[in-house]
Amino acid sequence: MAPLPPARRRMSTWQTWGLILIAPYVLVFLAFVLYPVGYGLWLARHPESYVKLFNDPIFFRTVVNTLIFIIVAVNLKFLLALWLSGFFTHDRVWIRWVSVLFLLPWAVPSIPTIFSIRFMFNPEWGVINSVIFRLTALDGPNWLNDPHIGLSLAMLTHIWKSLPFWTLILISGRLAIPKELYEAASVDGATAWQKFKYVTWPSIRTLYLTSTILSMIWTLGDFNSVYLLTGGGPADLTHVLATLGIRYIRLDQVDLAMATIVCAMPFVLPLVYFMMKSLSKSDEKSS
Fold first, then answer.
1. How is the chain split among helix, strand and coil, in percent rounded to 5?
2. What is the CATH number of the domain that holds 241?
3. Is residue 196 assigned to a domain?
């Protein structure tokens, strides 16, 4: 007599409700994440799109702008955040009030703040040139119509907007350091620089490097700082990869816009690799 087949195991009530509750999130992921990415890669599948993209002189200028933006803006931002994180950890009342004002650029929405900066640097009626004219009786420079000044102002705007967030991250890292280490260093006669070199930096080095790489990834996709301030101008000379795709979409060249996004992958993937590698090293040390 043949053995009876094993009875199928029925899902419990909790498992059934779990599948029902997770189903909307899966559908949202498929509809708004997986499908747009897959559709974009499908549009950028033709080699002709990349030939046209590489033949566009604006593309190579954009790549250079993107590298400058990432290297200069991110590193300058984190050097400032590292210094400010030490400043704001001092236990003084007036520093607490200054810290509240310092957080405002990060808390306020990007569109009105960046547009206000754009209006301030308007060459005709902006407040910056008005002050210059009243003090010197000379006309101020045409700030946003110079590609070098425009890109520099976009980087400064990015730093000003995101600096409070990363400063808070480094402050949390400093506060996690036991105070006994600083007290022991003071007993040994260590200077402020020696305390930073031998106590602070070894404790927050992994956090600093990981945050820097993560900020580079986010900065690569920063759309607001450039597009809202300069619009990629003048003559499309201040575009970065995050805004160049919008230019192609406005020109009804969707395939080039998607190809631009694909060309940003060589920037993103190494950063993700180094970030995960640094995190894995920190886990090995902690274990």
1. 80, 0, 20
2. 1.10.3720.10
3. yes
